[in-house]
Amino acid sequence: MTDLSNSRTRDTDSLLHPYANAMALKENGVQMISRGEGIRVFDDTGKPYIEAMAGLWCCGLGFNNAELIEAANEQMAKLPYYHIFSGRSHETALELAEKIKALAPGNMARVLYQSSGSEANDTQIKLAWYYNNARGKPQKKKLLSRMKGYHGVTIASASLTGLPYNHRDFDLPLDIVTHLRTPHHWREAEAGESELEFSARLARELEETILAEDPETIAAFIAEPVIGAGGVIVPPEGYFEAVMPVLEKYDILMIADEVITGFGRTGEWFGSQSFGYVPNSISMAKQLTAGFAPLSAVAIREDMASAIEENTGKIGSFGHGFTYGGHPVSCAVGIRTLEIYERDDIPGHVKRVSKRFAAHLDRLADHPLVGQARHAGLMGALELSPDGSTRMFDRPMLTGAKVAAELTARGVICRAIGDSLAFCPPMIITEAEVDELFDPVEDALNAAHDWARSEGLA
């Protein structure tokens, strides 16, 4: 039997950890998480932490839901694996697809499964290309994304992502992608520019980019309803209302990346519903199974589905799919997850409890280390500043990491995204638990502020 008595340091000799400085981990070790219960996880010493990021934005029902465990066990005993290739299928894949179609906006007609959000967005690119080839527009291949947008880490989806650390030394992004301005009014607006004016300017910039690139070469625009891993950036008033007519004018697909915002996170079933637009296709993952099993899905509208299906008849096959796409155990967990969301009205619960969540964030906006508080449903962030203005730190990322460390020491796991503190707790969180989550935040900010002043950062 393997001896894990020194697991905190031994782990760094076994794994290459994503999104981490490997040399720092070798020196400091890693935090080992051993179990979960409700909105909390426990480390290997038994210390509890409120998991204020729902893991990686995904455990909407917390960390020990007995119904999801039961669904996985039942399906494992019945049919632990099968595929949906070459004319075969199984009931759980079909049933979940029907549920997704019933909940998704825009009369989605077909569902295609993968295992991760990255694979879903990679699939979106291939579908956009296949669709345009099928309808006789093979030149429409370029893709539009946004700076700070996050769409995955495969070669193609990482190219859509607008974050430098996803590109550096990976020889990315591919030249098929053009990144547009981040829709971050607080930081990007001109002096005196209202949110509506800012949105109108971004729509004009979008059209100028389309014309410069040639509309007949652009396949799709991908956007998260709320930018998640780029800092929980909530779109300004009127943003999607301004953008959508431009895309429609030039026959450009709108891909909604709902990997984080899907299934109640913003207080509606999908984030695109919260912000008043209807996409051509949707990527979803994470809370599709409440994080209990790996599964993602792409849903497309009837016009895309018909063109794609007719083209398979012409060329003989649809040459795309994943071994574990539509895995019966994952689909069974997804079915039960959506049943719980509906039965317990999780979107309605989020809408109610998010008022308390927003009030805490707004209160903390007055802290001298905070420049802006922002939120949508149960997603929120505090963007830090050396003096409460839009000015950035001379040495970025240090202060955000310090606040996150101070919060961890106080029993709350959040995420520092540069110098923004992100919060995305399990959607089952109660108002009392929201209060518990935010109880130590001001103390952590105070400690980090003292440290930042001692280091000459604030």
From TrEMBL:
GO terms for biological process: biotin biosynthetic process; gamma-aminobutyric acid metabolic process. Signal peptide: none annotated. This is Aminotransferase class III-fold pyridoxal phosphate-dependent enzyme. CDD domains: OAT_like (cd00610). NCBIfam families: PRK06105.1. Keywords: Aminotransferase, Pyridoxal phosphate, Transferase. It comes from Oceanomicrobium pacificus. Belongs to the class-III pyridoxal-phosphate-dependent aminotransferase family. One of its GO terms (molecular function) is adenosylmethionine-8-amino-7-oxononanoate transaminase activity. The lineage of its organism: Bacteria, Pseudomonadati, Pseudomonadota, Alphaproteobacteria, Rhodobacterales.
